[in-house]
Design goal:
three-stranded antiparallel beta sheet; about 100 residues; 3 strands; mainly alpha; about 40% helix; 4 helices
């Protein structure tokens, strides 16, 4: 399994970036770069609630994603397919989001 897939698996389980870095003996900025690559590849979605995006959402009052914090990430269908193909499709977190640092 590649580091890319390992990071994706950690994000799927809701593990924070600093903890992923510690588990993989990497710098947090290197993990963040991998996550940004996963967003560009369509394996993760950045749930950035900055600006007025949340103001127009009918679910904003009950949303579990903090609206005043840093970006959060959620795995996409393509990301789930990649994890299943790699055998790293462990149980996701109840709200599978990973806060950025």
């Amino acid at each position: 399994m590649s580091v890319y897939e390992e990071v994706l698996g950690f994000v799927n389980r809701g593990i924070e970036i600093r903890d992923i870095a510690e588990q993989l003996a990497m710098r947090p900025d290197a993990v963040k770069a991998i996550i940004e690559s996963q967003v560009r590849a369509g394996h993760l979605q950045d749930l950035d609630c900055a600006g007025s995006a949340c103001d127009t959402c009918p679910m904003s009052k009950g949303c579990p994603v903090p609206q005043d914090g840093p970006s959060q990430y959620v795995i996409t269908i393509d990301g789930k397919k990649l994890l299943q193909a790699s055998g790293n499709d462990g149980e996701p977190a109840p709200y599978p989001v990973t806060p950025s640092i």
